[in-house]
Specification:
CATH topology: Rossmann fold
CATH class: Alpha Beta
Order of helices and strands: EHEHHEHHEHHEH
Structural class: alpha/beta
CATH superfamily: P-loop containing nucleotide triphosphate hydrolases
Helix content: 40-55%
Shape: globular
Strand content: 5-15%
Bound molecules: adenosine-5'-triphosphate, magnesium ion
Oligomer: single chain
Distance between the termini: 55 Å
């Protein structure tokens, strides 16, 4: 009899706070008290705005908080910026640079924070990598194996905005950039067409990931205050059911 191989990839069957796959052999996460709260969504949906407000609210209550954001690893940010600026990033390099960025932040920021009982506010999580790579045709199983070293987050909120509303907001706040428009994929002749097609494809990926992983979906067209109130209610209930804030 051949025993079932242990699942080593990203699936919805992994408990929050545990590695999806084999993880890092030298890290035992079992009793780490911290929590990972991720906010996902396409570009410009209001993640930074909400995370800023959440941080203030949590800190006032006595929680230790760190923020971690996509491509913000000290090690990898300059490399990713350089690769993007050269516009010569191929598919495999693109995926591996993102994975390295995440690995670096996992070891340097996320795991130490979980150990210390902090709340990790993640501005995008691995789902962004899954969505972007899928839009670029990367093999699903390969990709999910690659991220087997990631930790399943405790809560994932998905700020959902349809493409028309997104375009309006992006135009109001500084315009479309090459990568947000998926111009590397040659989806349209001009940046506007490319942005629309690319973001619509991304949205479909996020929606399907949301169903699979049970994201808590919020309507990103609502006011900043209304969204924040909803987030605070849900996070407050979750934290209240888990443990009291660190004192002192
Ligand atoms: N609920 C909202 N309603 C209207 N405008 C909003 C809302 N939330 C944020 N904005 C505005 O939309 C713009 C993008 O917001 P923000 O920077 O928070 O988004 P983001 O998801 O972090 O974007 P990026 O993908 O560029 O990091 C900002 O100008 C912000 O003021
Ligand atoms: Mg932002």
């Amino acid at each position: 009899m051949v025993s079932e191989p242990r699942e080593a990839q990203v699936t919805d069957r992994v408990q929050p706070g545990h590695f999806y796959g084999a993880g890092l052999p030298y890290v035992g996460l079992e009793h780490y008290p911290g929590k990972i709260i991720a906010i996902e969504g396409t570009d410009g949906v209001g993640r930074s705005t909400q995370i800023h407000l959440l941080r203030e609210w949590l800190e006032v209550q006595g929680y230790g908080v760190i923020e971690t954001g996509w491509t913000r690893s000290v090690l990898m940010q300059p490399t990713i910026d350089m690769a993007k600026a050269s516009n010569t990033l191929n598919k495999l390099t693109f995926v591996l640079l993102y994975a390295t960025d995440f690995a670096d932040r996992l070891e340097e920021e996320i795991i130490p924070a979980l150990k210390a009982g902090f709340i990790v506010l993640a501005d995008r999580y691995i789902f962004t990598a899954l969505a972007r790579a899928r839009v670029r045709g990367v093999d699903r199983a390969w990709l999910r194996n690659l991220y087997g070293f990631a930790i399943a987050p405790h809560l994932v909120f998905y700020l959902k905005l349809d493409v028309d509303a997104l375009i309006k907001r992006v135009l109001q706040s500084g315009g479309m950039d090459f990568w947000e428009s998926g111009m590397d994929l040659k989806l349209g002749d001009d940046i506007y067409e490319s942005f629309r097609t690319y973001q619509a494809k991304l949205l479909r990926e996020y929606n399907s990931l949301g169903e699979e992983f049970g994201f808590r979906t919020l309507d990103a067209r609502q006011s900043v205050d209304r969204i924040q109130k909803n987030l605070r209610n849900q996070i407050g209930a979750f934290l209240g059911a888990n443990e009291p804030p660190a004192s002192g």
